[in-house]
Amino acid sequence: GINAEYGKQWYQRRVRVSTERCTLLRATVNFTNLTSTYRRDLMQASSLSFPPKKLFSLSGAEKDERRIILEMYIQSIGQQPDIAKSNLFVDFLLQSQKEYNKLNEAESVKLTVFTSDLKPVCVDITGSDYTPEVLRYTAASIGVEAKLHPFFALYLMVGEAKQKSIVRRLQDMECPYLTLKTLDEHHSIEIRKSYWSREYDEQLMQNNVTLHMLYIECIRNLEDRWMKPATETLRKLKQLKTAGLKEQFVKVVKSEHMYGYKQLGPGTVDYPEEGTESPVTVFAGGDNIRLVYKDGKTISLPVIRIKCWKLFPDKKGVISLEFLVMKDVLRWINISTDTTNVILISMMLQSLLDEMIQVRDGRDLELTRIREYSGYLPIANKDRKQKQSMRPKAPSFSALNNQDNELFMEGINDNDL
What we know:
Layout: E1 2-3, E2 8-9, E3 13-17, E4 20-24, H1 28-36, H2 39-45, H3 60-78, H4 81-84, H5 87-100, E5 108-114, E6 120-126, H6 131-141, E7 152-158, E8 165-169, H7 176-181, E9 187-193, H8 201-204, H9 208-223, H10 231-243, H11 246-254, E10 262-269, E11 278-285, E12 288-293, E13 298-302, E14 306-311, E15 318-326, E16 329-337, H12 339-360, H13 381-390, E17 403-404
Parallel strand pairs: 5-9
Antiparallel strand pairs: 1-2, 3-4, 5-6, 7-8, 7-9, 10-11, 10-16, 11-12, 12-13, 14-15, 14-17, 15-16
Helix pairs in contact: 9-11, 10-11
């Protein structure tokens, strides 16, 4: 079609970012702007080149081919943390989501967010509110103290009642209301704890609201049956639950070695034997990825021994981890699973790594970008210049090889290998 305002030809592009497809009804010039502003940095961050425009109109097959290349390109640059958090990239994706949904940014809407005990919380927002803001409104609505907001996140869930499973954590670059609007009735949004370290539990246990949320998550983990306490422990937990002793209940559950792990789905892996496809269930927690095999055998892959990991836009359902199996020996471990689970594994792995770096550097958990981008929302053009001057400078892009691990080999000595 022709954009009458700009006189530019535009095409409807469907581009996959993480597990979602967002239709980008953008003038072709706006695709180019994404690369032209930071051309040098994006060239370093991606092995792919931005597909050039053609002189003549594209045929149907050529449009499909260009769509696939654009999809791969955006996935490639979006995997780099600095780019994914930049104002340029976030604004590009937010505006695309809003334009496709023909959103009136001033319109008030109601969004239902579920708590850990599956109680609905109706939050009054605008459809343009992005994830960190909706998280802040939700946490405040259920009585979570502001200082404890950083310990929670919003998750996209799928399934009915207690059979819900995590699809992924909602990203800064999306509007939760619009994300949910494009999905069927089996999807919902839930507020859950966002951290991995058991040490942070102590802070939540000092507040009745967050203690209850922690208590309910413990019960749900036990009901999932992949945490297997001894018979005597189960008897003690039943007594504590009956007596309403939530803090003691949580402390007993915390003593289980699988406490705090998240199940990321079933799949197959070519490890430890290369060339095989062994059925496993993948978990993330503590400081490792854990593979539980069909025969009950468990293998842990410590995060500090994962040099990097790859996602393949052209190979759906595969994530590859470059793992230090022994001293001076690296090998690729390929996990094959559902495409949604592949994205979830990558996101959880990055989340584990981010938290470990925070702990190493002695930094407190920070509420995702709310403090850093206080008041940030894409706004009308007439106010954009003034609003942008109030934003902090976007981080510079750094050249990364796939998803590099800043903690690789840190603290490992020869005796550990």
